[in-house]
Design a protein that fits this description.
The protein is of the alpha+beta class. It is 33% helix and 20% strand.
Length: 368
Amino acid sequence: MSEVYAARRERLRERCAAGGSASALVSRPANVRYLAGAAPQGAVLLLGRAEDLLLCGRPLGDEQGEGRPDEGLRVQLLDTSGGDPAVAGADLVAAQGADSLAVEEHDLTVARHRALGSVAPRLRLTDLGGAVEQLRLVKDEEEISCLRIGSEIADQALGELLESILVGRTERHLALELERRLVDHGADGPAFPTSVGTGPNSGRGGHRPSDRRVEEGDFLSVCLGASYRGYRCEIGRTFVIGTSPADWQIELYDLVFAAQRAGREALTPGAAYRDIDRAARHVLDSAGYADGLAPLMGHGLGLEIDEDPQLAPAAMGKLDACVPVTVEPGVHIPGRGGVRIDDTLVVRPEADGGPELLTITTKELLAL
């Protein structure tokens, strides 16, 4: 991986040089992870003219099973505890005689930005913007492999839960069990707080599990994900508790399934982000569910669970191959419940078989 990290840093260096800066300070944790490997919390990466340096405020350790920093990168531990690695980086750049430093303004607080200017008042601070996020957008096959393994883990955890007795158990209990199973199967941990919704809570995006117990006839919606070597996947499914679903449950499920399928089929290289959203949203709009829909029908993922691209009505941009995204339409009817179906996929050209589905748990309306 050392060559991969070095190549990523070189691409960023080229972007910095094009913007007129020979040095850059990367502070956003996911961006540090992308360019330098796993690093202690609060570490920053300094791209210097002479060498690149990982500045850490605390000693290296096992970063939640995500690995170690790039072996080809020099690591420097701050001499004093409680110091700010970003401020130390700016001081180093100024001492080397540089006249400018690109920083991630979207990650820095106002106070931290002022501290950088204070320690190096002659250093011109420029905005690196989303340069690293743009590099992260298209994944290499090693990154996709991590997402694929994480998706397999999430599928396993969900499949095992479906084989257990669910009636009478609380949403909170089921969520905790799912997260335990993720770790049991090799995940670093959950990719995000697991959501379990039953009955009137089902189908609500981002629902926080409550003490409501599963009852016969309920919709049960689950959204979970595994983090594996830092890469995060997502899967969402909806089931019915009992022997047979009601007619309204079948109709609603079929509608959301059709919307999700339309979104998945639209995932082709060159497709506009907004067109993916439109493909899924149109199905729900046409059935009279325009009000109350989520602001987007999907998003990118990787080292963070919510990355670019945003598959939303006003999103600008077009899909590239090897970009992992979710497609996650849902409908919630207040007081009754609802349906959400969510998959992690990788955009692939038709010549390679079209979008690669990573989360493969069945999307049939199962009665559990």
